[in-house]
Amino acid sequence: MTSVPDTMRAWVVAEPGRLDQVELPVPRPAADELLVQVRVCGVCRTDLHVRDGDLPPHRSPVVPGHEVVGRVVGTGADVPDTYGVGMRVGVPWLRHTDGTCTYCRRGRENLCPRSIYTGWDADGGYAEYLTVPAAYAYDLPERDFGAYTEAELAPLLCAGIIGYRAYRRADLPPGGRLGIYGFGGSAHLTAQVAIAQGATVHVLTRSREAQELALSLGATTAAGADDAPPEPLDAAILFAPVGDLVPVALQALDRGGTLSIAGIYLTPIPPLDYERDVFRERTMRSVTANTRADGREFLAAAAAHRLRISVTPYAFDRADMALDDLAADRVNGVAVLVMDD
Hints:
Layout lengths: L6 E6 L7 E6 L7 E11 L1 H8 L15 E8 L12 E4 L2 E3 L5 H4 L10 E2 L11 E5 L4 E2 L2 H4 L4 H4 L5 H11 L7 E5 L3 H12 L3 E5 L3 H9 L4 E3 L9 E6 L6 H8 E9 L12 H5 L4 E4 L5 H13 L6 E5 L3 H9 L6 E5 L3
Parallel strand pairs: 10-11, 10-13, 11-12, 13-14, 14-15, 16-17
Antiparallel strand pairs: 1-2, 3-4, 3-8, 3-17, 4-5, 5-9, 6-7
């Protein structure tokens, strides 16, 4: 282990609605864990839900943040030699699964009832250091990701991965018509993957700046969230955590279309009308976390095809402002906390 200080700066959620900067002991890695010095950490809407109590913390206080890029500075006794000091890794949302339950054995570890998450069950990346089980960290070597800055890599670790799973859950046919509702960090990455794979993408979001970004990334059209797309959709993904948009998106689907709901939190869904909203084999699917296989597949695609990532950097000491700006829809693209050099 390289020399590390005894204490570190961190931001914690101790009660709903507050994010406070404190000084904490630097954690020590367990036998199967890495100690990572944080370089950047993406600011995700899930962090906002944890801060505001929409997702009650599983521990309190808790350090949020789960889109971490950093360097390994220490390893536990049982960590394989493939994880060495100085290695650049990504720390994602999924932190641990039991590996033995029915879901894990079926390759659906995202549904593991004993799953643990970074920044919710365990302290995350709004800190100078954090630990992660080595088996759940992603290798981010410069040889594969040299085209990206570290700030651009951070949102790939949650916004990118969960968006990719939502895209797969939407069952878009080859060359199909995809509607994307909401256009923040996850959506703007997912749209690029879909376009690269031949989809026609229609973006529906209330922000004029987000509409302009969508068009610049190759979306065919961009309009308001409540507007009807210019053609029936084969599939849609709801990224905005707004339950009122569920019937809007369902009504935009063509026969046999699928709506994939990407968020971990959604405001109440209004009553659905069977004939208007779900008849003709329209389907609604939720998305729960992701598997490590999702992450590896998405990161391989990002390494092979350079994605444009709209990043708004914030100094680490302004994490509270970053969450406030995200809540007020003042962030175009992805907010990222950047550590001092």
